[in-house]
Amino acid sequence: MSDGADRLRVAFVVDSLVVGGAERVVEALVTGLQHEGFEVVVGCLRGPGPIGEALRARGVRVDEGLATRRADPLQIPAVIRWLRGVGAEVAFVLDHSNALFFGRVAARFAGIPAVVGVHRTRRADGSPSLGRIDRLLEPWTAAVVAVSHGHAEYLAQFEGVDRSRLRVVYNGVDVDRFAASAEPGSRAPARGRLGLPKAAVVFAVVAALRPEKNHESLLGALAAPELAAVHLAVVGDGARRDALRVRAAELGVDTRVHWLGWRNDVEQVLAAADGLVLPSHPNVETFPMCVLEAMAAARAVVATRVGSLDEMVEEGRTGWLVPPGDAAALRAALVEAASTPRERQRRGEAGRAHVIENFTEARMVAGVAAVLREAVRG
């Protein structure tokens, strides 16, 4: 086995790499760890998903169908064989529930350490992010990677994770990807490509159309007379799509809401926007990548103070933070952001500098690489 100085082979164990914040982090880690000298393979318990297919197209080994039935112990040998067959020296297990089960049990019997990456704070229904079986398997876990200090404290205090196993690695973004979006002249051409009004103030919201993202409160704020000239660019899709469209029509704001669906060019949407807004409820939201992306594009952020947003957004310097569920506070922040273009620009520029200093993809990859090497040495 490698002592950490040579090339390590790390096996990512996931359920399916659908389009989501945690899965996009995995995509960045797989690519970045290769540049750090790791050999990387990916094992999907079910299908590869769009991100898995994209990794395959870039030459990464992505295997699928390792364990298609959730928590079925009879499938454990197949995952063990896969880990041994690919020569894994350490497993990185994403916090998909069945991956937490299969990944750690298989790693234990394959004789390699397992590092768990947790990206959520509770589930959408408010239940703990780690189930009872997940907590029972903690002794078979070399380290648990939290995405912020607040997240680590939550995992220790409310989910019972042993503090000695917790490691904090901030999520990060590729700031170069958003450099062009940060240029002052990027708005007009980007709006032309997306069909957005040239002169209006446009806020983007980048989030799955699910209840916990609380798009309803944003649509309600948009109906306020003070925001009558503001438009909204909605990136994402999900179960609430039709209901949200109906609600926008009921509020009379449907002509000012632009439904853009899922996109793989969020940098273009941010280039077209004057700022980002994220009105989420406390459940689930932990360290949303869209906020880092907006700041990397030099766009000010209006968001609810949920998860670890206060470790990302500096109130008064890089954006506006409001209490979750406070419709009046959200509306007031949007009014201030919409009516003060120089202040938006100042906070946006400060946000890009904040990301460059603290939240780059390179820093994230280096942090996870250090945790993996520590796990192998241990």
CATH architecture of the largest domain: 3-Layer(aba) Sandwich
DSSP helical segment count: 15
The CATH class assignment of the largest domain is Alpha Beta
Number of distinct beta strands: 13
Mean pLDDT: 94
Explain what this protein looks like in three dimensions.
- The protein has 378 residues and is α/β, with parallel strands linked by helices.
- It folds into 2 domains: 9-172 and 360-377, Rossmann fold, CATH 3.40.50; 175-358, Rossmann fold, CATH 3.40.50.
- It is built from 15 helices and 13 strands.
- Strands 3-2-1-4-5-6-7 form a 7-stranded parallel sheet, with helices on both faces.
- α3 (76-85) packs across α4, α7 (187-194) packs across α10 and α8 packs parallel to α9 (241-251).
- The two termini are 12 Å apart.
- Residues 1-5 have low confidence and may be disordered.
Task: Provide a concise account of the structure shown.
This protein has 378 residues and is an alpha/beta fold. It has helices spanning 21-35, 49-57, 76-85, 97-110, 132-136, 149-158, 187-194, 215-222, 241-251, 266-272, 289-296, 309-312, 327-339, 341-358, 361-377, and strands spanning 9-14, 39-44, 61-63, 90-94, 114-117, 143-146, 166-168, 201-206, 230-235, 257-261, 275-278, 300-304, 319-322. 42% of the residues lie in helices and 16% in strands.
